[in-house]
Write a structure and sequence with these properties.
Distance between the termini: 11 Å
Shape: globular
Number of strands: 5
Number of helices: 8
Structural class: alpha/beta
Strand order of the largest sheet: 2-3-1-4-5
Order of helices and strands: EHEHHHEHHEHEH
Strand content: 5-15%
Largest sheet: 5 strands, parallel
Radius of gyration: 15 Å
Length: 177
Amino acid sequence: MQKQIIVLIGGPGTGKSTLINELVARGYCCYPEISRQVTLEAQQRGIEQLFLEQPLLFSEMLLEGRIKQFENAIEEPDNVVFIDRGIPDVVAYMDYIGDEYPAHFVKACEDFKYTKTFILPPWEEIYESDTERYENFEQALTIQKHLVETYSKYGYNLIEVPKDTVENRILYILDKI
């Protein structure tokens, strides 16, 4: 079996991390979303919302981390690796806020390609804000639009995961791989 690096994408609060946690519980190799880690580290340094206060620095840190995740995934002994959010997410979020970014952001999107991309749709009933997720549901819808546009621009065929129970969503994903 050929190595599959599978990315789960979607706006904030669509259930990506819940699915990643369930895949981990089932023994799959998974890499978590790193933006929470970057945000928490910044908060420990006294920067409440690094993405809002210094979006380019935040995005550079995410891009670096997501490239490292991709490179590590290639080296994993497992044939299937799931990643919570991918490299093009960084570009989509920068487009969402309307900020410019260096050319190496685009190059990274072109150079590192995921095998399959599953997109989770906005789902107001499960959406929750917290200390690291500052967006409201309407903003999450706009972010979703940017994610679809960005991944499509880089040639990805997005596989939409239906709104359903965690179990059924997992079965849907596993059936598609």
